[in-house]
Amino acid sequence: MQIFCLFAIQNFYKPYFLLINHPRGRHKMKKAILIFTFLLLASVNISYSQFGNSRAILTGVGNGRNVTFTALAPCDTGNTGFGGVINCTLDGVTNTPFYCLDLCTPISVGDTVKDSSSTIPQAIYITNTYYPSRTSYPGKMTSNNDEACAVQLAIWHFRNGLDVTTGVSNISANVAGIKARALDIIADVIANGGSSIHVSTIAIKEGTQSDQFYIETKDTAGLPIAVSNIQLTITGIGTLSTYTVNTNASGVSPDVTVLNGDNGDVIKATATLQIPGGITYSGLSSVKQLLVLGRTTTGLRTAQITYGALPVELGSFTASINNRNVELNWNTSTETNNAGFEVERKLSGSESWQELAFVSGSGFTNTVRNYSYTDRNLSEGTYNYRLKQVDYNGNFEYFNLNSEIEIGTPNSFNISQNYPNPFNPSTKINFEMAKEGNVSIKVFDYTGKEISTLVNGFRSAGYYTIDFNAINLSSGIYFYRMEANNFTKVMKMSLIK
Questions:
Q1: Are residues 121 and 61 in the same domain?
Q2: What's CA 386's distance to the chain center, in Å?
Q3: How confident is the model at residue 29 (pLDDT cuts 50, 70, 90)?
Q4: N or C: more exposed end of the chain, with fewer CB within 10 A?
Q5: 136 and 247 belong to one structural domain
Q6: Cα(170)–Cα(433) distance, rounded to whole angstroms?
Q7: Which residues lie closer than 8 Å to 63 by C-beta, 6 or more apart?
Q8: Which of 249, 275, 301 is the last residue of a domain?
Q9: Are the C-beta atoms of residues 148 and 132 closer than 8 Å to each other?
Q10: How many CB atoms lie within 10 A of CB 364?
């Protein structure tokens, strides 16, 4: 029996060709199968990675619906495939749920897939938030078949760019309801799940001496957990002081000494641990269908260190100021298993860092990659910035901007175009005070009638943002006017309901 995530058998080769030869397809395949990440430790150049040894065998389909796709679907077919949970036997555990991660490639009952220890952030969020990881939550559809189908469509949206509205022409039941539910899940992921990372449940950490290391174990919530019978190996000319360790309730083992270690020696630690939902499993056949684990389970995982490997290297990290906006620019000369960068900011003198955004990395590359992020509409003050580089296993390191960024007072009075524009029903307006004084900002309709007073009083010098809610107004063109210290400016805005 062959299960098609999208297409019928006569289209077997065409979508696979599209996946491998399309630039976007090649990039995504790399992210799915490249598992290594590198961290530079104190006195010995060591790389670290975590990967999985568990294997799953496809046994059949679970909850879900048959879905018919239009020619607008990413694989350019109009055929019907199954959308929902598929069941596998994972390391002997039957009925372990998975979803298809790659819409364009088939998989057959009896096929084997292996934990690749990679994933996409959205898949982590979806599989840990929705069915079957959870069975009761707000918004869940009454039918598990319907909910599982909606979850699968959402995964395909983020992985393959599926447009649920135009790319799906029919579903075997409840078409409108499943589409609407999938769109709700997509909106939730965009708002809350775009930077999700999974926890490294086993790691090799630097010990108290440069030739020592210890094992750290956690559960998928990031909490320490005791694990017994962790097997250690070394490949190369070195030996280890012990080849089996246990971690305690704090999730740490005693130090292990590397004897006569040399660059290129590979040390591995393998144990039965929790595998977080959202991990990608890659097919072992020539057509590598990708599955994503539907909920947290247990299986074999391995951590690895290698002497003499290159880390992710940051080439530069700079900032420029444009009024109250700060543009950050950075580049990398090499990347290995780089999921991306969390951009963080704090006020000078404060200890609290705020995460601003997540900028996706390039996975694995030996060429220069350029990145940027603009932090907008800052208040007056002095700021520090840093990047938190995160790999697909959840490992990270920080890169700090060398200089502080100061946002001072404006050089002149000004009021900016509202945003968004057009708007419905709310919009924001920025204005600037070059020195303290009284300021008035009022809204007028097309006839010149005053509609609302947004500001009327004393303000110190600085940058300001105000909100205008037009929920009780009808669609049309409106004007807003700022008056301060002999400065007057009128701007136009459009309300569309």
A1: yes
A2: 18
A3: very low
A4: N
A5: no
A6: 57
A7: 84, 85, 131, 132, 144, 145, 147, 148
A8: 275
A9: yes
A10: 18
CA 60 → CA 63, 90, 123, distances in Å? 10, 13, 21
For the chain, state the CA radius of gyration: 27
pLDDT in tens, 379-411: 878 899 999 888 776 667 788 887 788 787 787
- Predicted confidence (pLDDT) at residue 331 exceeds the cutoff of 50: yes
Closest CA to 199 of 215, 217, 214, 212: 217
Q: Are residues 212 and 355 in the same domain?
A: no
Count of structural domains within the chain: 4
Structure token pair of residue 93: 């555990």
Sign of the Cα torsion 321, 322, 328, 333 reads negative
In 154-240 the beta strands, taken as DSSP E runs, fall at 168-171, 202-206, 212-217, 230-235, 239-240
pLDDT tier at 51 (50, 70, 90 boundaries)? low
The answer to whether 440 and 452 are in contact (CB under 8 A) is: no
Do 29 and 119 belong together in one domain? yes
Which of 349, 375, 407 represents a domain boundary (last residue)?
407
Q: Is residue 147 part of a domain?
A: yes
152 and 100 Cβ atoms separated by less than 8 Å: yes
**Does residue 302 lie within any of the structural domains?**
no
Task: Give a yes or no: residue 462 inside a domain.
Answer: yes
Residues 21 and 88 in one domain: yes
For the record, the structure tokens of 467 come out as 């909100």
> Do you know the residue count of the chain?
497
Q: Are 72 and 102 in contact (CB under 8 A)?
A: no
**Which CATH number does the domain housing residue 435 bear?**
2.60.40.2550
Beta-bridge partner residues of 405: 383
By residue range, what is the domain housing residue 367?
313-407
Contact status, residue 382 vs residue 406, Cβ threshold 8 Å: yes
Is this structure's pTM higher than 0.85? Answer: no
* 179 and 234 together in one domain: no
Closest CA to 244 of 269, 209, 265: 269
pLDDT of amino acid 207:
78
pLDDT band at 344 (very low <50, low <70, confident <90, very high): very high
Does 325 map to a domain? yes
Give residue 366's pLDDT band: very low, low, confident or very high (50, 70, 90): confident
Residue where the block lists tokens 């990679």: 118
pLDDT digits 0-9 by tens, 269-307:
999 988 888 888 888 765 667 899 999 998 888 887 765
269 shares its domain with 214: yes
Helix (H, G, I), strand (E, B) or coil at 335: strand
Burial 443-477 (b: 16+ CB within 10 A, else e): beeeeeeebeebbeeeeeebbbeeebebeebeeee
Do 103 and 175 lie in one domain? The reply is yes
C-alpha angle 133-139-137 in degrees, rounded to nearest 5: 40
Average pLDDT, rounded, for the chain: 82
- CATH for 355: 2.60.40.10
pLDDT at 479 over 70: yes
